Structure formats: structure tokens, C-alpha cells
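Protein Entry — a single chain follows
Fields — amino acid sequence, C-alpha cells
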Amino acid sequence: MPPKSTASVKSGSTEMNRTELARIERYLRNTFGNASIGVRARPKKDDSAEVYIGEEFIGVLYKDEEDGDLSYNFQMAILAMDLED
């Protein structure tokens, strides 16, 4: 399992702390049935976190807090060259 970052992620005035990242990681692992999913704070960005499967980067997770509603948006790009025919 990849090492956990001790950094925090901020979105506006809202901070994603280590505990929150761990909760999201646990949710993703349970939802997708994959214990190798990891959520890490981004070293040079404070508005998002990175999502990995093992050591392979698969997407970015953004925290959205608007009008008192909290949600997390996971964005993953799939390259055409990665698709098998």
C-alpha cells in the first residue's frame, strides 16, 4: 500500500484532513472491491487529492462544498490508446 501523506487538502476555506482522506479511501475500496486503491494529498495543490490503484495514478478527487451541501467529485480520464479492441 502506498505511504499516506500527512498533508491536508484545502478547497476554498474547507480543508480535507488526513482523517477525511482515509474515510474517502475506505469508501472507494469498499465500493469498488479493491483494497489497493489509495487517496493521497497532492504535494503542490491544495484543492484536490490524487487517487491511485497501487502505484498507478488513476484520477483526481475534488471536494465541493456549496450551499451547505458537501460532495466529492472523482475525475478520471481514459485514454483511447489504453482501450483494448
Observations:
- The helical segments are 18-32.
